[in-house]
Design brief:
Length: about 110
């Protein structure tokens, strides 16, 4: 299993627009072979059980919420194959341009896990 994870700070007022764009991107990722692509709204990111909490991982400004996206692949090679196709999709470029108007992409946190 190989995971690609994103943490997005999103203004509450932009949440529905963010989700609309991300759902369309999820469809494209799956069309090109991602096992799963899902987006979630944080329910609790405060410190608990002796852990720091995700609130310390991403700086949230006033009226922002934390969104999480998880994309699943079989392995790193599968991830690379899917991303090559996704990156060449014209619709993804349009969605990315729309997204840059909804969130500050430079504040998005991204990682890959195996």
């Amino acid at each position: 299993m190989y995971l690609e994870i994103y943490l997005y700070p999103v203004l509450e007022e932009n949440k529905e627009q963010f989700l609309k764009i991300n759902r369309e991107a999820e469809r494209i990722y799956k069309e090109y072979g991602a096992i799963e692509s899902k987006t979630f709204t944080a329910a609790s990111i405060q410190p608990e059980y002796g852990c720091s909490g995700m609130v310390s991982a991403v700086e949230l400004h006033e009226s922002e919420i934390l969104m999480l996206e998880i994309n699943r692949y079989h392995n790193k090679d599968h991830h690379s194959q899917v991303l090559e196709k996704v990156d060449n999709d014209e619709q993804i470029e349009k969605l990315y341009n729309q997204m840059t108007k909804v969130i500050d992409v430079s504040r998005t946190v991204r990682g890959e896990f195996k």
